[in-house]
Specification:
- It is a single chain.
- The chain has three domains: 87 residues, no CATH class; 63 residues; 153 residues, Heat Shock Protein 90, CATH 3.30.565.10.
- It contains nine helices and seven strands, in the order H-H-H-H-E-H-E-E-H-E-E-H-H-E-E-H.
- The strands form two sheets. It has a five-stranded mixed β-sheet.
- The longest helix is centred in the first third of the chain and has 79 residues.
- The relative contact order is 0.08.
């Protein structure tokens, strides 16, 4: 039986060249290498007195060339798609990075606007009261006290900006032993500026659990946010009471709480209450509680909210207990 290729076996030497052409070039380079190899093989066999490829052998050769060429083209298309996808992915990542920077700038701007609102409001109120009192005689002492409060709030605004800048740049917290009750009382005084009068505040602090390890400016801002929200929750309530206190939580932690007798939490908002830009208030920014969570978690604690059985809501957060107090 006469073999299909027989003496034309040197044509098999073209296979490695076509494989390389298919791997590196794709369709047309492989077809070109196949055609050149066919011409060279035919001439080589003719010069040596051997017949060229028979029709069936030629058909097999062409079929293999087409298979190699098709495989090479498929590979090149895959590589082109991969390069295109990589380019699109890189472009998308650049766009996302720009969007993330813009979002971060927006959050920082919103946070600053939110956190500075309270001291600036207090400054305006104290300055207005001083301006009114200056028209009356014998008010020097009261005016001096108001101006001192204005100065304190201006310093507080400066500290807030400094803490925000430190937080953005990854700075360390200035954690020291602080009196929880004293910080809350000062926070109530600050949050009460501009609030509707008439709320009754019950302090329920355990003196043995008073000392916490905290960055005073940042934690006090959490307290101001919670107390201010509690005051706002009392608008329109028949009973206007706040309960503020502390208790022992897990090992090494003190739990603080603010309970109001307001209308309670909306179910649609409660689950996402501490996410940025989530708020139930018409004029709210949804920044305050998100910042509060960030601050508390940076201290190693957590913050959460829950409804109270008698109506209203309770906000709780934990802070590390001061080492000196815990040792005592």
């Amino acid at each position: 039986m006469t073999p299909v290729i027989g003496a034309q076996s040197p044509f098999l030497m073209a296979a490695p060249a076509m494989i390389i052409a298919a791997f590196l070039g794709g369709l047309w380079p492989t077809l070109a290498v196949g055609a050149i190899a066919l011409w060279v093989g035919e001439n080589a066999m003719t010069l040596h007195g051997a017949p060229g490829l028979k029709p069936f052998g030629l058909l097999i050769y062409v079929a293999f060339t087409i298979v190699f060429a098709a495989a090479g083209e498929a590979r090149q298309r895959g590589l082109r798609r991969a390069r295109d996808d990589a380019g699109r992915l890189a472009e998308m990542q650049q766009r996302l990075a720009r969007v993330a920077r813009l979002n971060a700038m927006g959050e920082i701007a919103g946070a600053l606007a939110h956190e500075l609102n309270q001291p600036l409001t207090a400054i305006a109120s104290y300055a207005g009261a001083a301006q009114f009192m200056i028209r009356e005689p014998d008010n020097d002492q009261k005016i001096a006290e108001l101006l001192e409060k204005v100065s304190d709030q201006a310093l507080r605004a400066r500290d807030i900006i400094g803490r925000m800048r430190s937080h953005v740049s990854g700075g360390e917290l200035d954690r020291q032993s602080q009196s929880l009750s004293q910080m809350f009382q000062e926070a109530v005084a600050m949050a009460g500026v501009g609030a509707a009068p008439g709320a009754v505040i019950h302090y329920e602090f355990d003196p043995a659990l008073d000392q916490v390890l905290a960055d005073r400016i940042q934690v006090q801002q959490v307290m101001v946010n919670l107390v201010r929200n509690a005051f706002e929750a009392l608008d329109g309530a028949k009973v206007r009471e706040l309960r503020i206190g502390n208790r022992l939580a897990a090992s090494g932690l003190i739990e603080a709480y603010v309970t109001d007798s307001g209308s309670g939490l909306e179910a649609s908002v409660a689950e996402r209450l501490f996410e940025p830009f989530v708020t139930s208030k018409e004029q709210g920014t949804g920044i305050g509680l998100a910042i509060s969570r960030s601050i508390v978690e940076a201290h190693g604690g957590r913050i959460w909210a829950e409804p109270t059985p008698a109506g209203g809501a309770t906000f709780r957060f934990t802070l590390p207990r001061a080492i000196a107090e815990a040792a005592a």
